[in-house]
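Internal ticket - ligand job 400, S-adenosylmethionine:
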Amino acid sequence: MEGSSNGNHHHHTDGGATTQMNHFRPTKPGGGGGGRSRVSRIQTPPCTEFDKAYFQSYSHVGIHEEMIKDRVRTETYRSAILQHRSHIEGKVVVDVGCGTGILSIFCAQAGAKRVYAVDASAIALQASEVVKANNLSDKVIVLHGRVEDVQIDEEVDVIISEWMGYMLLYESMLGSVIVARDRWLKPGGLILPSNAVLYMAPVTHPDRYAESIDFWRNVYGIDMSPILPLAKQCAFEEPCVETISGESVLTWPHVVKHVDCYTITYQELQSVTASFKFQSMMRAPLHGFAFWFDVEFSGPANNEEASSLTEPPKTNPSGSHRRKRAHPDEALVLSTAPEDPPTHWQQTMVYFYDPIDVEQDQIIDGSVTLTQSKENARFMNIHLEYASGGRSFVKECVLR
Ligand SMILES: C[S@@+](CC[C@H](N)C(=O)[O-])C[C@H]1O[C@@H](n2cnc3c(N)ncnc32)[C@H](O)[C@@H]1O
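stdout (structure tokens):
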């Protein structure tokens, strides 16, 4: 875990805004070609110094402890594995980024014939010991190396991976899942999770603003308001990973990106743009935008029809929006939404320097572009343009 913000650039047309980011789970670009070519035709992206630092960060036990203790995360994966037992029993699985080996072991417990547990971090050595301690060495084969570099001499029936980063794409390990899919997955094979959706929504958060900014107006009776501009910059220049309450969200969310793990290409992930138009459900100071995601665990064949995530919205006419599981036999969903139980991903907030007062029904529109940073493919550049009440703004920040 680290929290660094360094001078990034933001321009504002009127007023202005920017953000503050801290991050814990690093990022992975990935590579390989789009289509389902076979091994020899897929290019292996080089392992950069950034990648080495990334894998190094996963050698610490704390990061794994945090993920495993996130029961919403870990239990949803376990339930999804059990729900898809019939696709796993007697089958060959690859676990992309196995960490401590937990998901590989769940798959072995669900009856997998063989599980390739791949991790480039030194945590793979621990995974290997854990597999031994649980007498699963005949089933779980731990490969210490990058998914892009290891050799697996058979096709696999199932790919499992926990690849999601902050704002879904930040830790873009998804590129490595794409490499694994295009190299090893049998036609009709299963990918867990199968789909993901990134959402955004406008948020009011007066307490957060008061504690970081208004605080300086009166400090033990001293007027410290000259510090306000610096306080705003330090608090809100970069995106913030924090838990917000569902009550802070001013409207239904908009979909920024749908990811279908069966078909997504690496190219598609390099830059994502979405436009939005929100109508505030109440009068409130607008402090920024929140981003969060869901992932869904559906089967291969019925992926299209079973995916409620990719359905058009039922609840709201304006085209974005959330779904809920209508039936218990529908695909399991791991949600990181503000109104759902908290996870270690929390939400990612992009705050403005100054709030915008919006009336009920007031429109907030604009667009957001997320691009892999050129500086480090594991960082994500966020470019936001938004307008409300006749004023428009631009904010750029980096999730690093
Ligand atoms: C978010 S952790 C998940 C660990 C474990 N699957 C779990 O659920 O607890 C992601 C893991 O993937 C590994 N990883 C990321 N990209 C990889 C790649 N290209 N090749 C091999 N391992 C990778 C990291 O080292 C890290 O241990």
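Auto-summary: The domain at 39-207+231-399 is CATH 3.40.50.150 (Rossmann fold). The CA atoms of residues 7 and 389 lie 30 Å apart.
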